Amino acid sequence: MLDALYERGRAAGHGWTLDTELLPPHQQQVNALESQGLVELASPENRAELSALEGRPVRWAARLTSYGHDTLAYGQARPRAENSLLEAGPDRRLVELIPSQMTALRVFVGLTGRLRVAPADGLAEQLRAAACDHGIKRWRLYLTQEQMESVAYGLWLHRKTGSAAEANRFVREYGVVHNPARASNDGAPAGDGLPSAARAATHDGAGVSGRG
Q1: How far apart (Å, rounded) are the C-alpha atoms in residues 105 and 127?
Q2: What is the pLDDT of residues 81-120, one digit of tens each?
Q3: Do the Cβ atoms of 79 and 128 come closer than 8 Å?
Q4: What contacts 109, CB < 8 A, 6 or more positions away?
Q5: How far apart are CA 65 and CA 172, in angstroms?
Q6: Cβ atoms < 10 Å from Cβ of 138
Q7: Stretch 152-180: mean pLDDT, rounded?
Q8: 35 in the Ramachandran plot: left (φ > 0), alpha (ψ -120 to 50) or beta?
Q9: Which of 37, 58, 83, 153 could lock onto 50 through a cystine, CB 3.0 to 4.6 A?
């Protein structure tokens, strides 16, 4: 409805959507938006000015407030996740991350352009598209194997500069750990599928510390 009000107001030249342009049910929807501060309803003075412009009585008119404009602009600019990002498939695996893991990975993808080993293609989009299950406080993503290995690398960086809990949890739950000693020659992060957390101690020299 915000976009309809914006387009009609812009077409009219004065920013207002008039009573003749919306059916009563739509006007009721606009009234609800007015209660949220997103829409301004025309005052008697506004309606008198519009009536003079239109050459007829204008009994109702509405336009976006600054908050409505910003809400519309934000909604139009917000990334739209493709269905393939939100669904499991033969090449994707459901991964559920705790908030601290998501925070670490957002830092990781935010450094794209500064890192020598960049996040995997599509990982940033997956993070933006992730939905949070507030009941269990987990973020749900559907990742390819390459993206999971990239997650392991991001959490390895987090481990080296802060907490090991996030990387340890990822190893325990998904069996993927970054091992720089076995990284490929081109510097891409390598992931090892591990049957259990016990094997994690054999990697990375010092092993995986803590339980997360």
Answers
A1: 8
A2: 544 455 666 788 999 999 999 999 999 999 999 999 999 9
A3: yes
A4: 119, 123, 124, 127, 154
A5: 50
A6: 18
A7: 93
A8: alpha
A9: 58
| Beta strands 131-133; 93-97: pairing state | unpaired
* Nearest alpha carbon to residue 173 among 146, 147, 200, 150: 200
More confident residue, 16 or 27: 16
Find out whether 95 and 70 touch, Cβ atoms under 8 Å.
no
129 is written with which tokens?
């598209």
Question: In sequence order, what are the residues at sequence separation of 6 or more whose Cβ sits closer than 8 angstroms to the Cβ of residue 79?
Answer: 125, 128, 129
How far is it, in rounded angstroms, from Cα 110 to Cα 124? 8
Q: 133 - beta bridge partners?
A: 138
User: Residues 49-84: pLDDT tens digits?
Assistant: 999 988 999 988 888 899 988 888 887 776 555 444
- Side by side, the strands of the sheet bearing 17-18 are 17-18, 61-64, 39-41
Does the pLDDT value for residue 129 go beyond 60? yes
